[in-house]
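Hi L.,

As promised, Aspartyl/glutamyl-tRNA(Asn/Gln) amidotransferase subunit B:
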Amino acid sequence: MLDLTYEAPAPKVIAGAKHDWELVIGLEVHAQVASNAKLFSGASTQFGAEPNSNVAFVDAGMPGMLPVINEGCVALAVKTGLGLKAQINLTSAFDRKNYFYPDLPQGYQISQLYHPIVGEGEVLVDMAPGIARLVRIERIHLEQDAGKSIHDMDPHMSFVDLNRTGVALMEIVSRPDIRGPEEAAAYVGKLRQILRYLGTCDGNMQNGNLRADVNVSVCRPGDYERYQETQDFSHLGTRCEIKNMNSMRFIQQAIEFEARRQIAILEDGGTVVQETRLYDPDKGETRSMRSKEEAHDYRYFPCPDLLPLEIEQAWVDDIAASLPELPDEKRARFVTAFGLSEYDASVLTAEVESAAYFEAVAEGRDGKMAANWVINELFGRLKKDGDRAITESPVSPAQLGGIIGLIEKGDISGKIAKDLFEMVYTEGGDPAQIVEDRGMKQVTDTGAIEAAVDKVIAENPAQVEKAKANPKLAGWFVGQVMKATGGKANPKAVNDLVAAKLGL
Ligand code: ADP
Ligand code: MG
């Protein structure tokens, strides 16, 4: 079961202004559907392909070409909706959003304005262990992406690459429930994590497969609560929309800047104009792109080429039955099943691949020890090794589990285990075999340890006297014995024997 004893964080208040102001943020996230084919054609969606090689006639807007819905994309949108605990609409419909753009040769984008496939859902955004905010999802609709115009290849001409034209996007629209820049970034991070767990979008922000339009407004304390009570937007300030952000860092910077810009206008007695803005990361500022008056009239109307999209409840149920365990559930289970801290559990579940790796290591072993090894040793080593992904780890879960098993059996100490880990990391091999072959086994034979202890005591009479007067100095003898045995003596046995021999 999910532990929902969460506390909501306080809204961000902007310092340095004459009055107190609070931020209100709503995001429209465009997530590329993880499908090999486009939304209405069989053309490939492969990233980085030769320009204009992934274009079907329908993508190129050839006369008489008809779109055919890709069932796989619909299934992934439904899966996403279910993952966000959202309402699935068994009937939805496609509309034409009319505008001319060179990289969308149809002259319109097929989207879902009036009847989206997914309705209201939610995302629980973690801010710190035990502190989270519930961000409501308003809707998710399916639509086509546009292509890419290239203006910097030739001084006189522009080029167009239609490979992306017609690729399926899910537009995930949040309610204005986000109250600060860090929360906005955390929301995008959580959404990305859920989509990656579901396998419905790869979340690659660098390639533009996940990008956000960020709506920002400011209001006075108390206004947001009034909006929450009534759902009446007139309690909120006028919003500006910052388009096409594909970096969490830039999202935060743009919101900070935009909030200060709006506050300065309002405190000067002015009014914020609703408009679309662009963020310039080099200058660290947002710039006006177009105002509401210049906004296009898209003349939406139902797409006559496509029938309303009817899906069956049984099909939705099948998809629901195939949902994987999601991040919140997995994290809660790691805390209870393996005795991990919330923090460790969230680090391990950040990516589904690291969670799977950890589980394979921890199977039948001490969970906390497994978590420490994965987080501190393995993650640390991968980071040092050019920030390698867990899927590229040279040490397999079986090998790391083997190392931990040797510690648990008392065959090696924690210190030797670190050396062994490095050997396995760089050379590979079976940990138990390496320990055997290289004589790394811990000496638990008390006879051998006793001999070493006797030797150190006999050779250092002055130290013996000091230790008898001050038992804390016994540690020196332990250190000497460990050194003499090449770190292989069982530390507990050494401790016990030193204490006994010194009569402490
Ligand atoms: P549009 O397509 O005109 O941008 P949408 O309904 O698709 O409109 O998206 C509007 C987005 O703006 C939603 O994410 C919504 O939560 C957010 N939003 C609406 N009003 C405000 C406001 N006053 N402050 C901040 N965000 C807002
Ligand atoms: Mg918008």
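The chain has three domains: 5-314, 325-437, 446-502.

Thanks again for sending the construct details.

K.
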